Amino acid sequence: MKMRVLVGAGLILLFAAILVIGGWFQVLAFTVAAVISIYEMGRACRAKGLHPCLWPLYAFAALYYAAYALLAPAWLGVLALCCLLALCTERIFNPARTTEDAICSLFVFMYPAALYVTLGMVASLSKSLLLLCFAAPLMGDTAAYFIGSAFGRHKLCPHISPKKTVEGSVGGFVGGALGGMLTYALQGIPALHSAITPTLWQLALAGLLCGGVGQIGDLFASTVKRWADIKDYGNIFPGHGGVMDRLDSVLMCAPLVYVCMLLMWLL
Questions:
Q1: Closest among 184, 178, 264 to 214, alpha carbons compared
Q2: Dist. CA 3–CA 9, nearest whole Å
Q3: Is the whole-model pTM more than 0.90?
Q4: Mean pLDDT of the residues in the chain
Q5: Which tens digit of pLDDT belongs to each residue from 176-219?
Q6: How does DSSP assign 53-67, residue by residue?
Q7: How far is the first Cα of the chain from the last one, in angstroms, to the nearest whole number?
Q8: What sign results for the dihedral spanned by CA atoms 221, 255, 246, 177?
Q9: Residues 6+ apart with CB under 8 A from 7
Q10: Taking a C-beta distance cutoff of 8 angstroms, is the pair 60, 105 a contact?
Q11: Cα–Cα distance, 19 to 129 (Å, whole number)
Q12: What does the H/E/C string look like for 171-199?
């Protein structure tokens, strides 16, 4: 437990540094996370006897953030197209690669590679929005745990996660909204200043939605682990598992936050 707490505190400090420093440090951190996540998902597939083609995905994970943040968004589209064509072409000309392997490769291209792209897009919009992607699901998960432990009576989806309850899930929505409010309170800090500063109601609403979508991200990640018959995606963080174990909810919230902000600007 002590190691878990220490590692958790270290991860919070790492994210704070990514948020405050930004720039190349942020690009490097998210790039490394994406590459490790591709490895972890490939490991999960191999546990089921599948052998996805990973080298185009590693290349995409290594270059996606730099292509978007340092060049132009159009180059990200070019990179994605090249990765897709490489995965399909490799299957066509490699008789040892089964169609099931290729489908698995395309799955990893979508989950988690494409989700990392949306995380980078959010980061390019605003530091406060990036903070929301982490704060809302984290506070939602914390609230779900405590409310579920205290008041949980009705099972949410016992075939996937026997301990999760409907009451805890409702608490997750509330915690997500609180995460949005916390983000609003912190965005006034000079180190988090951005050109885009969402209002309290925008962040609270987006946080509320993240409280639910974060749970979907967590449960879907658990579904994949059950399918692969593995406990964690990795062991890079003692007591916390791998990168995907820590970012499953965050990655699912990133596209939601991006779309929410685009829609809210139109209202």
A1: 178
A2: 10
A3: yes
A4: 92
A5: 999 999 999 999 888 888 878 889 999 999 999 999 999 999 99
A6: --HHHHHHHHHHHHI
A7: 46
A8: negative
A9: 237, 238, 239, 240
A10: no
A11: 11
A12: HHHHHHHHHHHHHHHHCCCHHHCCCCCCC
> Picking from 15-19, 93-97, 134-138, which range would have the lowest pLDDT averaged per residue?
15-19
User: Quick one: which of 265, 263, 260, 1 has its CA closest to 136?
Assistant: 260
Structural contact between residues 250 and 117, judged by C-beta atoms closer than 8 angstroms: no
| Cα 57 to the center of its chain, rounded Å | 17
- Domain limits at 225? 2-266
In one-letter notation, the amino acid at residue 82 is C
Taking the C-alpha atoms of residue 125 and residue 260, their distance in angstroms, rounded to an integer, is 12
DSSP, residue by residue, 95-127: TTS-HHHHHHHHHHIIIIIIHHHHHHHHHHH-H
Q: What's the total number of domains in the chain?
A: 1
CA 155 to mean position of chain CA atoms: 25
In whole angstroms, what is the distance from residue 180 CA to residue 168 CA?
A: 18
